[in-house]
Amino acid sequence: MTLEEEVKKEIADHKILVYGKGTKEMPMCGFTNETIQFFNRYGYPFEIIDVLRNMEKREYLSKLTNWPTLPKVFIGSQFYGDTDILDEMATKGEMEPLLKTVFGK
Predict the structure, then answer these.
(1) Averaged in consecutive runs of 10 residues, what is the pLDDT profile of the chain (105 residues)?
(2) Domains in the chain and their CATH numbers?
(3) Where do the H-state alpha helices sit in the chain?
């Protein structure tokens, strides 16, 4: 499986996917931790994929998203950015309807 195929599969397999540094149990960066806390508030399942030591995947994801930093958040297979963008969406009341749509609720 190529790196491109691997990333496409990961994004397709998870309704909420975060590429970050570390894991849910042990985030290795404050921004990844913020993102975990953000999604924990909503109660929907989400996946964290640790790319801290995988520079090839990090570089590919940066090119794919045109977003240089981590974490990178995908919801319903669409790229949304990071916690700054998510917080803004939540403030505008856009996050809950999006998650309900993605999860069919």
Answers:
(1) 96 98 95 96 96 95 95 97 93 96 93
(2) 3-102 (3.40.30.10)
(3) 3-13, 30-40, 55-65, 83-91, 95-102
